[in-house]
Amino acid sequence: MSSGQDGGQDSSQVDWEADGWRTSALETVGEAGRNEAMARVLLIEDDKETADEIRAELGDRGFAVDWAANGIEGLDKARSGGAEAMIIDRLLPGMDGLAIIEALRHQGVRTPVLVLSALGAVDDRVRGLRAGGDDYLTKPFATVELIARIEALLRRPAESRDTVLRVGQLALDLIARTAKRGDRTIDLLPREFRLLEYMMRRKEQMLTRAMLLEEVWNYKFVPRTNLVDVHMGRLRRKVDEPHEPPMIHNVRGVGFILRAPA
Question: Which of 51, 121, 189, 234 is 20 to 30 Å from the Cα of 150, by its Cα?
Answer without folding.
Answer: 121
